[in-house]
Amino acid sequence: MKLSSRHLLGLDGMPAKDIELILETATSFKEILNRPIKKVPTLQGKTIVNLFFENSTRTRISFELAERRLSADVVNFSAAGSSVSKGETLKDTARNIEAMKIDMVVIRHNVAGTPNFLTQVVKSNVINAGDGIHEHPTQALLDMYTLKEQFGKLENVRVCIVGDIAHSRVALSNIYGLTTMGAEVSVCGPATLIPRGIEKLGVKVFYRLDDVISKVDALNVLRIQLERQAGGMFPTLREYHRFFGVTKERLSRVDHPITIMHPGPINRDVELSADVADGPHSVILEQVLNGVAVRMATLYLLSATE
Amino acid sequence: MPTERQLVDASGFTRTVNRLAHEIVERHRGAGMLGIVGIRTRGDYLARRIAAKIAEMENVKVPIGTLDITLYRDDLRGRLSQPQLKTTDILYDISGKNIILIDDVLYTGRTVRSALNALMDIGRPATVELAVFVDRGHRELPIKADFVGKNIPTMMDEEVKVMMKETDGQDAVFVVQQKS
Prior knowledge:
The complex is a heterodimer. Helix content of chain A is 39%, strand content 15%. By secondary structure, chain A is an alpha/beta fold. Chain A folds into two domains: 16-135 and 288-302, Aspartate/ornithine carbamoyltransferase (Rossmann fold, 3-Layer(aba) Sandwich), CATH 3.40.50.1370; 137-286, Rossmann fold (3-Layer(aba) Sandwich). In chain A, the strands form two sheets. A five-stranded parallel sheet of chain A has the order 7-6-5-8-9. In chain A, strands 2-1-3-4 form a four-stranded parallel sheet, sandwiched between helices. The two termini of chain A are 13 Å apart. By secondary structure, chain B is α/β, with parallel strands linked by helices. Chain B has a single domain (13-70, 86-156), classed as Rossmann fold (3-Layer(aba) Sandwich). In chain B, α1 crosses α2. The termini of chain B are close together. The A-B interface holds A 1-2, 24-25, 27-29, 31-32, 35-37, 39-42, 45, 300-301, 303-306 and B 68, 71-72, 76-89, 117-118, 121-123.
């Protein structure tokens, strides 16, 4: 079994059969995560470098655990304290690291398109762990895996992504992936944070949470990046919470249960009230566990396409 | 033209499965502490048949599990495409049990090596024994089966095909020679 690309840069244009293969393979890896010994020898002898030019807890630990549980050798790199601060270019940094015999590179960078650039300068497999406001494919894959686990399928599942759609790579990857798999996708947020023309990607747009909430099976609630408020995109956090905050009270007005997802880190009582985040329909921690399985599946499948 | 010769037919197949079940129970003086693990795909079906026969003879239900050894294979490196992963499904604790590992054909021994490593990652069985339907020789590792259905000496360029109703529509064993 093989993916059509030797890199994972984004879900834009990724064929449905590739997404299906990753999600199906992840099921096998999830079983391993529930064993007493959570390690298999599959990637023995492979070396993977995690190039993180941007802060991250979840994604970095998740990737590192996925790599170690497949028995790969792992090298971690973070921009702070490296030669990047001496002015070394990304191309040189990457080529130097690769000269030490690396097989795969996982990269997170604040500039969109960096992973794609990297594929042109190194021979290793490249995995995008988030590039600027472009894509975050493994997050979207783990979101889809979680949805599939909840509903048994993705086709016709109604998902609304709530929050700052304009600056969210999680939103964009989810839109590409979910529409490919036949889900019904909508977005909801303040008009200033919804990009013009987003309907062209096949999603419905709502500007009021109460208008969409009764028509969905799941809400994927995005983190409000606090610096956006300073940018004048919305007046106050309190106002945001009032209009777009997912609260118990708001959910109680809907007659069916709604699955609550969040890519983390949560701003409690801003985009999501604490009782919903910890409530019975929240699958947030399940997403975190699934993240490791999905990343193991991705690494396993990419390691073959040399 | 590949030539095929049939060595076992449907009734012979059933007799051999029954004999394996009898031998296992005899050596363990019952089925109390037994656990059965079949290696996907045909080892799994064999495991179910042997367990059913033991249940019929001893009136005990022996726990069965399925092992997928893909992640433990030693030939994953340098492949252009990864084999399809399936799940390992062992829903009972194998620790302390006498595990009977079951596969259809014993050849190089590499599958069994992978299976042993996989088993040890799941628990710590008291003992592990190997039961195979066909032992065709040509071992590359120091591995020997405890229960053998048929010893079939083969040439390296021959292929042993164990067919089972569950996947192939019939119970039979063929030896196929590729050269004309």
